[in-house]
UniProtKB/TrEMBL annotation, chain A:
<dbReference type="GO" id="GO:0003995">
    <property type="term" value="F:acyl-CoA dehydrogenase activity"/>
</dbReference>
<dbReference type="InterPro" id="IPR009075">
    <property type="entry name" value="AcylCo_DH/oxidase_C"/>
</dbReference>
<dbReference type="GO" id="GO:0050660">
    <property type="term" value="F:flavin adenine dinucleotide binding"/>
</dbReference>
<dbReference type="InterPro" id="IPR009100">
    <property type="entry name" value="AcylCoA_DH/oxidase_NM_dom_sf"/>
</dbReference>
<feature type="domain" description="Acyl-CoA dehydrogenase/oxidase N-terminal">
    <location>
        <begin position="6"/>
        <end position="118"/>
    </location>
</feature>
<dbReference type="InterPro" id="IPR046373">
    <property type="entry name" value="Acyl-CoA_Oxase/DH_mid-dom_sf"/>
</dbReference>
<comment type="similarity">
    <text>Belongs to the acyl-CoA dehydrogenase family.</text>
</comment>
<keyword id="KW-0285">Flavoprotein</keyword>
<keyword id="KW-0560">Oxidoreductase</keyword>
Automatic annotation (TrEMBL), chain B:
<dbReference type="Pfam" id="PF01012">
    <property type="entry name" value="ETF"/>
</dbReference>
<dbReference type="GO" id="GO:0005829">
    <property type="term" value="C:cytosol"/>
</dbReference>
<dbReference type="InterPro" id="IPR012255">
    <property type="entry name" value="ETF_b"/>
</dbReference>
<comment type="similarity">
    <text>Belongs to the ETF beta-subunit/FixA family.</text>
</comment>
<dbReference type="InterPro" id="IPR014729">
    <property type="entry name" value="Rossmann-like_a/b/a_fold"/>
</dbReference>
<dbReference type="InterPro" id="IPR000049">
    <property type="entry name" value="ET-Flavoprotein_bsu_CS"/>
</dbReference>
<dbReference type="InterPro" id="IPR014730">
    <property type="entry name" value="ETF_a/b_N"/>
</dbReference>
<protein>
    <recommendedName>
        <fullName>Electron transfer flavoprotein subunit beta</fullName>
    </recommendedName>
</protein>
<comment type="subunit">
    <text>Heterodimer of an alpha and a beta subunit.</text>
</comment>
Length: 380, 257
């Protein structure tokens, strides 16, 4: 057992950090303030191959591993939480399901351009009445000749306003126990009857694009069904397991940014004749923050490593996501506290981290759902 | 075109320098490609893409330098060479480095050799010119522009903010100044491909050199940090008195005149 990144992983970390510091961080507050989706920056990230990290070369990727991908998410998130979220969602939710479950034709058609960063893809699971209870999906699909006809509504779908296609989950029938059978469909965003509205005014991750989807008699060819028609539910659970690693990595990145600002400020800010970092009250905060960050990052790496080894990682991904987001929220809160009144001012750029971080406790499974996932893995 | 880049692995620009037992401590420090060498690598890749040929990046260091060499390969260099003299040569200076590099390069028929204008750690700026001297080829330092037409070369030098245009011919050694180009980020496919590109490791023996041949010509007497910057002093009173006081302070306190 060893805890060192490989040379490639180190190089990826340096490259992404370098890129994020020059091309993302200087604009992060503007993108947050004005809710700008930085499409030009995403194009540059695409050219560098960032959207293809965990996919093999034959599908337009760069054949990296999940750890490298988590490192990239952390570094982008350190510069801008919203950009990090859109990046993580594009790879983990937009592209990965097609890589996991798609046919060769589907991969060729939809995955390759996403891995190359030429197109965006989204994942439409959440509905106004089906959040944590994803089994309660109300969107319906039925077969009509050679086409599926889909009707329903989805909400809070990341990147859909820029997506070429959305993977939409819909109920296609009932099993022998009377439970909904859920299937997943690849739906092109230009399909007639498919409306995408992106008018949410979010608390944080404001550089990220978030939309509502309305599907009215949207017809897709039969071959657009993704994976096993009867296992849509299992498939998105697996997809979310992977997505959780990236949300955890994003939480670490956001917390890292908040921590760095806090420690720098604590060393510069003088009260009672000395830098506040000389006071134990502040030192203890910083010590806790540094420790929590390190532990969260280690958990992210472990979950990613398990996934790369082809071992079960459901529980560890939930640990990572839950721990990184909850301690991350605490870290961002303490970072503001250390800044005092200045921290409450937008100008200092610390409050943004807390607003961005809040989503980490909600998106891709709330903290409560993470605890449920863990408890089930424990056999409860 | 046969292109070589001389690269050095240096401290990250943001590292704090710590001195321990009379030496700069490398413990826990982050390392990078010397920023001026990055311009040299970028220029080498651009020249190759325009004129064809091959880019070989050469460094002297230990196995830790492999990461920086792989980064250069990830940017687009074709081959890398690590000359490891760690165990063979105890006292090293610019002479050592230049001698080893020149010995390596002498039978390589290099058309163009690029280096950084200066390394941000030692800061001597000597290695490039010394290598050119040893190889008996012309060199142009601190260039901000390079144009190659056949074997004719036009280079623009940065001379303390002014520009000097120099015409010369290949084979040639140039050292890169900021402004020469904008170094690219190594792309993800580049990083993954770099793993498979050739990286040759050489030792002093492989170059038919003995330790005595490359022994340092200089001796480091002492290494110390610059004194901590004190708050400035504002003199008061008549101008004439102030001047008097200033001169006396420069004599007695600062001891610079």
């Amino acid at each position: 057992m060893h805890f060192e990144l490989t040379k490639e992983q180190q190089m990826i970390k340096e490259m992404v950090r370098d890129f994020a510091e020059k091309e993302i961080a200087p604009y992060a507050s503007k993108w947050d303030e004005e809710a700008i989706f930085p499409i030009e920056t995403f194009k540059k990230m695409g050219e560098l191959g960032l959207f293809g990290i965990p996919f093999p070369e034959q599908y337009g990727g760069s054949g990296g591993d999940t750890i490298s991908y988590a490192i990239a998410v952390e570094e982008i998130g350190r510069a801008c939480g919203g950009t990090g979220l859109s990046y993580a969602a594009a790879v983990s939710l937009g592209a990965s399901p097609i890589y996991y479950f798609g046919t060769e034709e589907q991969k060729e058609k939809w995955l390759v351009p996403m891995a190359k960063g030429e197109t965006f893809g989204s994942f439409g699971l959440t509905e106004p009445n089906a959040g944590s209870d994803a089994g309660g999906t109300q969107t319906r699909a039925f077969l009509d000749g050679d086409e599926y006809v889909i009707n329903g509504e989805k909400c809070w779908i990341t990147n859909a306003g820029y997506a070429r296609q959305v993977i939409v989950t819909a109920v296609t029938g009932k099993d022998e126990r009377g439970k909904n059978i859920i299937s997943a469909f690849i739906v092109p965003t230009d399909a007639p009857g498919f409306t995408i509205n992106c008018h949410y005014d979010k608390m944080g991750v404001r550089a990220s694009n978030t939309c509502e989807l309305i599907l009215q008699d949207v017809r897709v060819p039969k071959e657009n069904i993704l994976g096993d028609p009867k296992k849509g539910f299992k498939q998105f659970l697996y997809t979310l397991d992977g997505g959780r690693i990236s949300i955890a990595a994003l939480a670490v990145g956001i917390a890292q940014a908040a921590f760095e600002k806090a420690i720098q400020y604590a060393k510069e800010r003088k009260q009672f004749g000395q830098p506040i970092a000389k006071f134990q009250a502040i030192q203890f905060k910083l010590a806790d923050m540094a420790m929590q960050l390190e532990l969260a990052r280690n958990m992210v790496y472990k979950a990613a490593w398990l996934k790369d080894q082809g071992k079960p990682f459901t529980k560890e991904a939930a640990y990572a996501k839950l721990f990184a987001s909850e301690t991350g929220f605490h870290i961002c809160n303490q970072a503001i506290q250390i800044h005092g009144g200045y921290g409450y001012m937008k100008e200092y750029g610390v409050e943004r981290h807390l607003r961005d971080m809040k989503l980490m406790e909600i998106g891709e499974g709330t903290s409560e759902i993470q605890r449920l996932v863990i408890a089930r893995q424990l056999g409860c | 075109m046969n292109i070589f880049v001389l690269m050095k692995r240096t401290f990250d620009t943001e590292e704090k320098i710590v001195i321990q037992n009379g030496k700069v401590s490398e413990e826990g420090a982050e390392f990078i490609i010397n920023p001026y060498d990055e311009y040299a690598i970028e220029e080498a890749i651009q020249v190759r893409d325009q004129h064809g040929g091959e880019v070989t990046v050469v460094t002297i260091g230990n196995e830790d330098a492999e990461k920086e060499l792989r980064t250069a390969l990830a940017m687009g260099a074709d081959k890398a060479v690590l000359i490891n003299i760690e165990d063979d040569v105890e006292n090293r200076d610019q002479y050592t480095t230049a001698k080893v590099l020149a010995e390596y390069l002498k039978d390589k028929e290099a058309d163009l050799i690029l280096a950084g204008n200066v390394a941000i750690d030692g800061g001597s700026g000597q290695v490039g010119p010394r290598v050119a001297e040893l190889l008996g080829i012309p060199y142009v330092t601190t260039i901000t522009k390079l144009e190659i037409d056949g074997t004719n070369v036009k280079a623009v030098r940065d001379v303390e903010g002014d520009e000097e245009v120099i015409e010369t011919s290949l084979p040639l050694l140039v050292t890169a100044q900021q402004g020469l180009n904008e170094p690219r980020y190594p792309s993800l496919p580049g990083i993954m491909k770099a793993k498979k590109k050739p990286l040759e490791e050489l030792e002093l023996d492989d170059l038919d050199l003995e330790e005595d041949d490359v022994e340092a010509k200089t001796k480091t007497i002492e290494i110390f940090l610059p004194p901590k910057k004190e708050a400035g002093k504002i003199l008061q009173g008549d101008i004439a008195d102030q001047v008097k006081e200033l001169v006396s302070l420069l004599h007695t306190e600062a001891k610079v005149i």
